[in-house]
Design a protein that fits this description.
Order of helices and strands: EHEHEHEHEHEHHHE
Strand content: 5-15%
Shape: globular
CATH architecture: 3-Layer(aba) Sandwich
Strand order of the largest sheet: 3-2-1-4-5-6-7
Radius of gyration: 18 Å
Number of domains: 1
Number of strands: 7
Largest sheet: 7 strands, parallel
CATH class: Alpha Beta
CATH topology: Rossmann fold
Structural class: alpha/beta
């Protein structure tokens, strides 16, 4: 029976019933797909983002298992307030998904210090502020999962995204460092590194640039772009008891790009 269900909860291994997940940047794209998959696995999901309308649409799409709170992760001192609001309305946060991010495509030598700091403020300092706010409760309950969304840029070099590359590489370092500190206290920390995923943002990036699209597909062993749900189901695995012995891992979900030639 231990193979069929979690001996401590009696749930099926991939079930997230009873969990409350806070997902930053959850209104669109990969963040929304993660929220949808976590909700289908039984979790209550709370989406955050700076713009209310995408959050409202996302919650309507997901259904009664979802809620939202408007929040800007770069306003670091508001992280404790956000967590209090979420826990008062939806219950203790047992899953945190640090997905919010901004992109900057610019040659390295033209990237300014201000632009660098803006990217880090979202990806690194914003994530760290939320971890500081949610981790004490997870530690007290000796149960929690923190998930970062990394990138192919944290695994190999990609031109003209130096600030983004540095930030996503820092995410990977945070995963490993936090895992060593928090895992003995019952909190697992992992990351997913998405490959090229079919989203509106990626479609815009490829529009009018068939050479770039062909280059990506030619080095992807599976020969196609991924779907947002591919990232969502990987998140379910890492956040569920099916992944209970997994911590400090950066999981590429990339069709083989990171090992392709």
């Amino acid at each position: 029976m231990a193979i069929l269900n979690d001996a401590t909860t009696g749930r099926l291994p991939f079930s997230l019933a009873g969990e409350t997940a806070l997902i930053t940047g959850g209104g669109t794209g990969i963040g929304l797909a993660i929220a949808q998959c976590l909700a289908l696995a039984g979790a209550r999901v709370v989406l955050t983002g700076r713009r209310e309308e995408p959050l409202r649409r996302a919650v309507a799409e997901i259904g009664s298992a979802a809620g939202y709170v408007v929040h800007d992760v770069t306003v670091l001192d508001q992280a404790p307030l956000l967590v209090r609001q979420v826990e008062e309305h939806y219950g203790p946060v047992s899953i945190l998904v640090n997905n919010a991010g901004i992109h900057l495509k610019k040659p390295a030598l033209q990237t300014t210090e201000t632009e660098f700091l803006e990217v880090f403020q979202t990806h690194i300092l914003g994530a760290h502020a939320l971890i500081r706010a949610v981790a004490p409760g997870m530690i007290e309950r000796r149960q929690g999962s923190i998930l970062f969304v990394a990138s192919m840029a944290s695994l190999f070099g990609i031109p003209q995204v130096i600030a983004y590359t540095a930030a996503k590489s820092a995410c990977v370092g945070m995963v490993r460092g936090l895992a060593t500190e928090l895992s003995p206290l019952g909190v697992r920390v992992n990351a997913i590194a998405p490959g090229w995923i079919e989203t509106e943002m990626s479609r815009q990036a490829m529009r009018g640039d068939p050479a770039r699209e062909q280059k990506i597909l030619s080095r992807t062993p599976l020969g196609r772009f991924g779907e947002p749900a591919d990232i969502g189901w990987a998140a379910v695995y890492l956040c569920s008891s099916a992944g209970r012995f997994v911590t400090g891992v950066v999981l590429p979900v990339d069709g083989g790009v990171s090992i392709g030639f």
